[in-house]
Amino acid sequence: MNDLDWVPDGIDTNIPSVARTYDYLLGGAHNLAVDRAMGEQMLKVLPSARDLVRLNRAFLRRAVSFLVQQGVRQFLDIGSGIPTVGNVHEIVRALDPSCRVVYVDKDPVAVAHSRMILAGDDTTAAVQADIRQPEDVLGRPEVRGLLDFDQPVAVLMLLVVHFIRHDEDAPGMLARYRDRLSPGGYFVISHATADHRVHTMRKAADTLQESRSKDNLVYRSHEEVSELFTGFDLVEPGVTGFALWRPDGMGSISDRPDDNTQVWVGVGRKPAVGSR
Ligand SMILES: C[S@@+](CC[C@H](N)C(=O)[O-])C[C@H]1O[C@@H](n2cnc3c(N)ncnc32)[C@H](O)[C@@H]1O
Question: Domain 18-269 classified CATH 3.40.50.150?
Fold first, then answer.
């Protein structure tokens, strides 16, 4: 296969993308030279970057498995990324084949590749849209057609809210998703932080900002990530380091304690009206 056969028309192959760089760090095949260079730069300033993305995927697996055990059958995965081993639809369907999943990403490669692997699957869809436009996301035909918001829906936002700048009001934006959920719906969030290793994390954000991708990586504190769950009851153990959220021993914890709390995560359940 030509190295670039899978690249959709209109992509500038000289500009790195967050989705493809993340794919490179995870060991995937949908990245370009420019993304690999960016990944290598990241590894120079943050040598544990590969472990961090792996720990994030392990948290994703544990969180969605937990939700299926709680009876959730509908998932809206925003900032879903390029499909890789352990996609949400594969994990949840293995537990209950009736689960429905809609993937949303702003990156054309992530969406094109998701659509390719989902071809012929009428209970899973992929949409190109921006998390910062909740009404647009929630109004897409694929979302309205596959997800019934009168029943519990889990909105997954892993390593994506930190691309929403402080002046864009992430809590207010996320509240618009929350307000569409029925009681028993969930938020699952993972979010990079500079509460630890301030200097290193600043260099990582600068690396991204100074690249031609120009993406802003906006760190939030434990308190700020907790605020994103306003209106939800946090599932135990609350907002915690990603590796410390219900670890199950399947590669979910790092030997280096600092790595285990480099990303804050939480799972929140929307309570019934009047139950608080
Ligand atoms: C670091 S990856 C995380 C992928 C996946 N959620 C995971 O945790 O494994 C971040 C993803 O968010 C997407 N993204 C960034 N900003 C976005 C936005 N404003 N709206 C939708 N997706 C966005 C990127 O394209 C990328 O695929």
Answer: yes
